[in-house]
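Note to self: the last two entries modelled the partners one at a time, which told us nothing about the interface. This time every component goes in together.
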Amino acid sequence: MKTILEVRNLETTFKQRKTTIHAVNGVSFSLRKGEMLGVVGESGCGKSVSMLSIVNLLPPAATIKSGEILFDGRDIRKMSRREVQHLRGKKIGMIFQDPMTSLNPVMKIGKQMIEALRYHNKLSKEDALKRSAELLDLVGISNPTERLNEFPHQLSGGMRQRVMIAMALTCDPEILIADEPTTALDVTIQAQIIELIKDIRSKLDSSIILITHDLGVIAGMVDRIVVMYSGYIVEEASVDDLYQKPRHPYTMGLLKSIPKLRGSAVSRLSSIDGSPPDLLEKPQFCPFAPRCSFSVERCWKENPALLTAAGESEESGHKTACWVDTRNGVEK
Amino acid sequence: MKQQKNEVVLSVKDLKKHFPVKLGAFGERSGLVHAIDGVSMDIYRGETLGLVGESGCGKSTTGFTIVQLHQATKGQVVFDGINLTELDEKELRPIRQRIQIIFQDPYSTLNPRMTIGESISEPIRAHKLMNNSEIKARIAELLKDVGLKPALANRYPHEFSGGQRQRICIARALAIEPEFLVCDEPVSALDVSVQAQIVNLMQDLQEKYNLTYLFIAHDLAVVRHISDRIAVMYLGRMAEIADKDDLFDRPMHPYTKALLSAVPEADPVIERGRKRIILEGDVPDALAPPSGCRFHTRCPIAQEKCTLEVPELEEKGTGHLVACHFPDLSST
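The predicted structure of the combined assembly is written out below.
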């Protein structure tokens, strides 16, 4: 499969008064055409910041220190503002977590939706509205033409998220980045949106990056998963490999700490001791070492690179950033 | 692990809480939000009753009304033979010593200008239970109980992570040795790996101090793990109450069934193969709840009777209560 997006060594920092927050510390991954990639991690692991870096939507306090972001072979960082603006919305669509704050509350749905169509596709107002109604229909909103005349507060949370998805799809983007699209929703509504994203994928054949903290939500959706911790990718694998044979101690701990919905009950949950590190310093050693039960001396001295996991073939694409072979606990 | 299951410690009888609201752009109309509309349940000493439902179903309002932070519109909360809804503030004071509450957000519920020691000891001072030197020893003991170092007592909340703050909130709730704890989404704001730590801590403390929990949450997997029995609410009314295994293996109410089928699981094989019951539409407005059964607007098996008659919560299996005209009794 052709690679449509490649990120190499991305490093993004935030300035906060006199301190620097190292949000993303050298992240590399690629997205293939037609693929759905999951990015998983807990709050503060840098998953959202890396995605915002791709489309250059970072807040003013943030800077991309280094790295390349190749879209179709061209580095987005070297493009002019105009070119990036052309890319954003037209080639890369975004869906954000909170559908209430991402929609303009004093603008009718229709007016918000046709903005991108008129800007990027130079459609007339009538054509743009017609296309918007089609898109609302696609995302399962009833009476689309009437909805175009409503304000966001007249819609429920699930409906608003559908509108957000429709807006992201307006210009048939080649890549869709969805940042926690279901986190703000209730589980029955979440189930609707999950089905919708799956449905859209099969209809439109777009490449999707799905960012989430919920290992349940993406299990049945994505093809590949990268797991992030403290601004690094610590594991990358196909979805089946990741759930069936996680190899990084963090992924293993994470999967174990999720309470199960079926099977016999356990009296205690296994948890990961401690809490994630603050990001004020770029760690000189493995960032997970203080919480890791496998850690050896080397973990405290050097930061491991993301390499093919021990015993896995390169083709499998199963990579971990760990000094230890977690199958036997021996240093690699 | 939990005996004494026959002594009812708290009993809620036909509890209602309506909030008057102003509507329209200028508040010219008024309405009533039917937050809870006739909730009944018994909680046994030493058990954990999980209370689940989607946002707006009234689960938190139920918790708040039980601890008398909201005044009930109608109905009774009987604790140890005393009806709390009839007591005035002064009469409630000794009761408040025995019932405490833990809130969802450990960031906003700790006073940022008080050291954590001061926060933890505030309930003790409010009830004038100890002198200063005793308080100091008690703080140290409480911090140890929740897995923090006693030396941290003089620090301020901002120096702690989310998980640590929730530990502090738990210590504060336990300070005056309550018997009954309402836990309002205590782990929802936490990351998975930290969530497991807090759940384990709460179970340890329950065993140590023989506490009774009303555990309010929307995460069914967490509730299944920690609870003995589970109550499911929908739009201000109780849909089903049963032992947790009963509820998960043999749900009778169509809403419970849909809820269980909507929760994604962290297993790609299960996820790909599963057939979800997708509920149409959204939860109706609590300002004007539907007639008859509240769930009939979204129910896949609703019939005419459901739109007319309110189903009562009735026992259909051993300890298995359900409020539905057409419950699924196939597996009993």
